[in-house]
Amino acid sequence: MSEQYQAEDIRQLTEKVREQNYFFSLLKQEINKAIIGQEYMVDRLLIGLLGNGHILLEGVPGLAKTLAIKTLADAVQGDFSRIQFTPDLLPADVVGTMMYNIKDNDFTIKRGPIFANFVLADEINRAPSKVQSALLEAMQEKQVTIGDETMELPKPFLVLATQNPIDQEGTYLLPEAQSDRFMLKCTITYPDFEDERKIMKMIATAHQPEIKPVISLHHILEAKKLINQIYLDEKIEKYILDMVFATRFPEKYGLSELKNYISFGASPRASINLAIAGRTMAFLKNRAFVIPEDVKEIAKDVLRHRIGLSFEAEAEEITADEIVERILSKIQAP
Questions:
Q1: What are the pLDDT digits (tens) for 306-334?
Q2: Pick from 79, 47, 42, 69: which is nearest to 223 by CA?
Q3: Ranges in the chain, pLDDT < 50
Q4: How far apart are CA 157 and CA 142, in angstroms?
Q5: DSSP letter for each residue of 143-203
Q6: Triad 134, 136, 138: Cα angle to 5°
Q7: Of 285, 289, 291, 273, which Cα lies nearest the Cα of 52?
């Protein structure tokens, strides 16, 4: 393909991106009516929505994690379901079960709350591993098997999970296989002084904004098709792969000091999700091509839950975020 033809292609694609992105600008404005001072969280929710990836939100209570997810569902006319994860939760409470119907003398399937476009798994780390494993098929295959019947989940299907990092009593570590299925792990922080003042006034005056549907599920599915066409240069692909491989073989990238801090590196899903998230970030910024800054901006969210920390790292209080920062500063962007 000639450079001139390629440039013309990107120009046409940019026009389509701008047309589609208009709807998502409206969506963001609608969400920001209820969510104040959490720009980072809202952007990541949109990346998960458009990138067809699940999101794990980690933050202390009261940071509007649940409200943000409910607001997103309201604004896109999607089915919303909330599952409160507790130690006594059973897999059947999530996916559904077979029930005996006395009248028909037969078993019928009662579908669980997983059958929705947006599933909020609240405090996901409070349920034991057998419940976590019930989510695995749904998150990866977008389907659920109950008895002998396999049923597809609605499209789009997005699991948005929350966990509290400070309360460790009565919680379970998420299995690595499940953590890896979350496209992003976002660490939510406190709002700043002025934003919290606005939140306080809004709640104190009982002025709860009404969230109106501003975008349809059809728009989301169309935008996803467009995002798949966004141009990802070979140099950006190499940059992504270097970043991921540096978590596995840090000594090959001049980062020998990290070797003792990493027990295992990021999986191939990290490379896939960095590429998808980079394309989605470009789309949200009205571009039809990915630049290194798109990948850098999303790198921590994609990698932080995919890097295994060694005992040495924990002893020296080295976090996954610090490791990603060192990798980003060492690997030269194209």
A1: 999 889 988 998 999 999 999 999 998 88
A2: 47
A3: 1-5
A4: 7
A5: EEEETTEEEEPPSS-EEEEEE-SS--TT--PPPHHHHTTEEEEEE-----HHHHHHHHHHH
A6: 85
A7: 273
